[in-house]
Amino acid sequence: MAQEYGEPLNDVFCYYTYVGGWKEKRPSDIVALKRKLDKIAYVNQPIFPGEFIKRHNDFMDLLYKTHKGWGVDAKLKTKYERRKEAFGPEWKEQWQVYFLTGERIPEPEEVREAYAEHQAYIATTIGIGLQGAPNVPAVLPINVR
């Protein structure tokens, strides 16, 4: 479960914090990763303490806005303007519909801290946990501060 859940979770983290291969993912990929992570979390829910699914949902709620209507995909809580600039002429205007507008967007530093806490919880829960404070991953690029 750790790798099956951890790899897509890391892809989402990279996208929201502009590190690693974030630019290799399209907005639709990040929405699809939420679905994948939700499926893994709910399938494995019985083998984890009750708090696991709450923590998973809290992390997803930080990153995605759901329940926007029947058949409407989750919206990404991240700024599309930065991504549009980074993609340049490769940016597709139809991607804008994947992004939440008009509401609070978490800063990359907030995402980084929440990710570290979520990882530490999972590691501890499966018995390979970190001792002490979470190991905060990756220094954020200077352009997101």
Provide mean pLDDT, rounded: 87
Largest β-sheet summary = 2 strands, antiparallel
| Secondary-structure-derived class | mainly alpha
- Please state roughly what percent of the residues sit in beta strands, choosing from under 5%, 5-15%, 15-25%, 25-35%, 35-45% or over 45%: under 5%
Helix content: 40-55%
End-to-end Cα distance: 33 Å
Question: N-to-C SSE series?
Answer: HHHEEHH
Shape: globular
Tell me the number of structural domains.
Answer: 1
Please give the order of strands in the largest beta sheet. Answer: 1-2
Number of helices: 5
Tell me the total number of β-strands.
Answer: 2
Low-confidence residue ranges: none
Please describe what this structure looks like.
By secondary structure, this protein is an all-alpha fold. It has one domain. It has 5 helices and 2 strands. The chain has helices at 2-17, 27-44, 51-63, 80-87, 108-125, and strands spanning 64-65, 75-76. The longest helix has 18 residues, at 27-44. The radius of gyration is 15 Å and the shape is globular. The model has no long low-confidence stretch (mean pLDDT 87).
